[in-house]
C-alpha cells in the first residue's frame, strides 16, 4: 500500500501563487508517475499535470505557462508551483500516484482545497 499526503492549498487572490506538495510513502516500489488532478462539485476529476520518473511531463492546456510540476525522486515527492492563479483554478486538488509491479495500482490523496478569490 502507498500512503499519499498532500499539503499547500489555501486562499489566494487572483494573480497570486501557491505551491502544492505531495509525498508518497509505504510500498513505493514500481512508482512511475505522480500528478495532480482537480475537481469541482458535480464535475469529473481532471488532469492538471503529471510527471513520470523518466522526467516526461504532461500539462492541461489551461495551465500551460502558469503551473510547473516537479519531482524529487529521492523523496517520492511531487510539487505543483501555481503562478498567475485565476478564479477558474478554484477546485479541490488531488495528488495521484501510480505504481507498476505486475499490475497498475492507482492511489489518491485526500485532496487539498485551492480558492482563488479577491
What does it look like?
The structure is a single chain. The chain is mainly beta and 118 residues long. Helix content is 0%, strand content 58%. The strands form two sheets. Strands 2, 4, 5, 6, 9, 10 and 11 form a seven-stranded mixed β-sheet that branches.
Uncertain segments of ≥5 residues (pLDDT<50)? none
Query: What level of helicity do the residues show?
Result: under 10%
Give the SSE order as H and E letters. Answer: EEEEEEEEEEE
CA-to-CA gap between the ends?
40 Å
Q: Output the number of helix runs.
A: 0
Supply the helix-strand structural class: mainly beta
Radius of gyration: 14 Å
Number of strands: 11
Overall geometry comes to globular
The biggest beta sheet is recorded as: 7 strands, mixed
Oligomer: single chain
Chain-averaged pLDDT: 96
Beta-strand proportion: over 45%
Amino acid at each position: 500500500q502507498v500512503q499519499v499526503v498532500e499539503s499547500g492549498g489555501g486562499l489566494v487572490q487572483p494573480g497570486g501563487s501557491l505551491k502544492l506538495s505531495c509525498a508518497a510513502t509505504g510500498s513505493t516500489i514500481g512508482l512511475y508517475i505522480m500528478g495532480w488532478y482537480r475537481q469541482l462539485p458535480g464535475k469529473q476529476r481532471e488532469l492538471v499535470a503529471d510527471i513520470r520518473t523518466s522526467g516526461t511531463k504532461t500539462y492541461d492546456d489551461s495551465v500551460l505557462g502558469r503551473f510547473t510540476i516537479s519531482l524529487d525522486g529521492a523523496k517520492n515527492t511531487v510539487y505543483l508551483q501555481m503562478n498567475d492563479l485565476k478564479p477558474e483554478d478554484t477546485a479541490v486538488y488531488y495528488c495521484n500516484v501510480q505504481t507498476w509491479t505486475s499490475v497498475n495500482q492507482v492511489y489518491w490523496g485526500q485532496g487539498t482545497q485551492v480558492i482563488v478569490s479577491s
